UniProtKB/TrEMBL annotation:
One of its GO terms (biological process) is establishment of mitotic spindle orientation. Transmembrane segments: none annotated. One of its GO terms (molecular function) is cytoskeletal anchor activity. Pfam families: Insc_C, INSC_LBD. InterPro entries: ARM-like, ARM-type_fold, Armadillo, Insc_C, INSC_LBD, INSC_LBD_sf, Inscuteable. Residues 92-544 form the Protein inscuteable homologue C-terminal domain. SUPFAM superfamilies: ARM repeat. PANTHER family: INSCUTEABLE (PTHR21386), PROTEIN INSCUTEABLE HOMOLOG (PTHR21386:SF0). Residues 35-79 form the Protein inscuteable homologue LGN-binding domain. One of its GO terms (cellular component) is apical cortex. This is INSC protein. It comes from the Eukaryota. The gene is Insc.
Length: 544
């Protein structure tokens, strides 16, 4: 029973917490979506829901009778937008799923009094959630009403069941009742999950119907913004939207000139939906890559539109995605897309535009060396290196991460070395070895580690060219690589940075053996790589 419940709770949480969704997106598409919320502020937000629940307990879930006119006034005064109402619904649903998990935990420990009190609370939350939803929804199906009734009835049955449990002291009777309570709890969780799925599907259908049928820019804009808010709630919601035809409806907007002003938010919503496989399938069906290519190569579109199109490209080309059925049509349009993205990097007026365009290019370079050859022909290296010298454009570790990714992937080409030397790229790689987070933010620290690792990888690959190795030695890359190997805090205790630095150091040592002291050579170069790695990971840093 316990394993079954954990499985159900995990599935429910996917719909509300959305943890996998944000992780699956590339950093540029996340738009720095991670916001740290003060614990007191979070408590204040949750307080309304909890006090509503207590009020419902006192009133025994009976509504207060009021006059018709007063009721209309109450509803109007408490009316929120569709987006806010759905946020409230999802928060209530998250509380219910958490409470159900806690009931299962208390049940395992035979804490019957706690089980009953929490069951009463869940009962009230479920009724409040259904009442709140029926207050703001325009229409609901017969299926939804039936499911609501089933859930309320089962919650009432659950509450009555646990009340009988706390009134008996017969241990044998309680043990026999425990399996029935577990079964009822599982049924409540199943009905609850089905209802939430149905509600979210219903709301997605309403928004997509507005987008599909409305000729009004304002109504369409509102529907797209609400749809985007839904996509931020997690991958599960993105799957629902994709299954209901969200990608088809949004690309239909992107093919109508009368909605040009809505292209940026439409493309932003598409980027979010395309983090799931269902979104990719829909994109392929509607020839979405051709549409994106047309937008990127059309100079009459705004920079914001081009940037959001680049964000969609960055999403659908993410190396983290395991589904790649859309790549065949992408390869057919790759040359035009790469050309447009390089131009966008060159003409970017802000750091965010450059970040989105360079992220798309970085992902594309993982496909094939053909993409790297295209970038070489387009003088992309010169453009990217020049951008790095402009702190207004390349202003974060995230942007530098994209640039050094492109450099690392292009460094497999022999012709790339001269381009990097001419653009002062070795100096840039040396600076990237010193990358440090200024805020201490977890995502930024991880980006800094990637920058250090990839810059070391790029140096290792390029140092097969004597000219590059000589330039790196003159810029004192060897002492910095040794410092990164020997000092865990310099590399933020990252093993991937350590391995990359050891590889780069060994390559440079071959080209310039005089640059190392004997102790460094004996410990970091001469042994097997794995032995040097173990030595450095076990090394205690000296603070003398």
């Amino acid at each position: 029973d316990s394993s079954l419940w954990k499985s159900i709770h995990k599935r429910i949480n996917m719909a509300f917490k959305g943890e996998d969704h944000l992780d699956s997106l590339p950093l540029p598409v996340q738009r720095m979506h991670l916001i740290q919320v003060d614990s007191v502020q979070r408590w204040m937000e949750d307080l309304k829901l909890m006090t509503d629940c207590e009020c419902m307990c006192i009133l025994q879930s009976k509504p207060i009778s009021i006059e018709k006119d007063e009721q209309n006034e109450l509803i109007l005064s408490s009316q929120y937008s569709t987006c806010n109402n759905l946020q409230l619904l999802l928060k209530r649903a998250w509380i219910i799923s958490t409470e159900l998990t806690r009931i299962a935990q208390k049940l395992e420990k035979n804490r019957w009094q706690r089980v009953h009190s929490m069951t009463v609370r869940v009962n009230c939350h479920v009724r409040s959630m259904i009442n709140e939803y029926n207050t703001f929804t325009r229409s609901s199906s017969e299926e939804m009403h039936q499911l609501e009734k089933l859930l309320i009835d089962k919650c009432s049955e659950f509450t009555a069941f646990t009340e009988r449990c706390i009134q008996t002291e017969d241990e044998q009777m309680l043990r026999s009742m425990k399996s029935c309570v577990n079964e009822t709890l599982t049924t409540v969780a199943q009905y609850f999950g089905q209802l939430i799925e149905l509600v979210l599907t219903h709301e997605a259908q309403n928004l997509l119907r507005q987008i599909d049928l409305s000729d009004s820019v304002y109504i369409t804009e509102s529907a797209i913004n609400n749809l985007f808010s839904l996509t931020q709630e997690g991958a599960h919601l993105c799957r629902i939207i994709a299954k209901e035809g969200g990608v088809v409806a949004l690309f239909k907007i992107c093919r109508q000139d009368c909605f040009r002003c809505l292209y940026p938010q439409t493309l932003r919503t598409l980027a979010s939906i395309c983090c799931v496989e269902e979104g990719m399938h829909q994109l392929e069906k509607v020839d979405g890559i051709l549409c994106l290519t047309d937008i990127l190569t059309d100079n009459t579109h705004s920079e914001a539109t081009h940037a959001e199109a680049a964000a969609v490209i960055a999403q659908i080309t993410s190396p983290h995605l395991t589904f790649t059925q859309h790549l065949s049509s992408f390869l057919e349009n790759m040359e035009e897309i790469v050309t447009a993205l390089v131009k966008l990097c060159q003409e970017a007026s802000s750091g965010e535009v450059f970040l989105l365009a360079s992220a798309a290019l970085a992902n594309i370079t993982f496909f094939d060396t053909m993409a790297c050859e295209m970038l070489l022909q387009l003088n992309a290296m010169k453009i990217l290196l020049a951008a790095c010298s402009d702190k207004r454009i390349v202003d974060t570790p995230y942007s530098r991460d994209q640039v050094v990714t492109i450099m690392a992937n292009m460094s497999v080409l022999d012709q790339c070395a001269s381009e990097i030397i001419q653009g002062n790229g070795i100096q840039l790689l040396m600076e990237m070895l010193f990358e440090k987070s200024s805020s201490g933010n977890t995502a930024e620290v991880a980006a800094c580690e990637r920058v250090q690792q990839k810059s070391a990888v790029t140096l290792a690959r390029l140092s097969r060219d004597p000219e590059v190795a000589d330039a790196a030695v003159k810029l004192s890359c060897i002492p910095r690589l040794i410092k990164l190997c020997r000092s865990p805090t310099e590399r933020n205790n990252s093993d991937s940075v350590l391995v990359a630095c050891l590889a780069a150091l060994r390559r440079l040592a071959v080209m310039s053996p005089d640059g190392l002291e004997d102790s460094d050579f004996q410990q970091l170069v001469k042994p097997r790589l794995v032995d040097s790695f173990l030595l450095c990971t076990n090394m205690e840093e000296s603070f003398v």
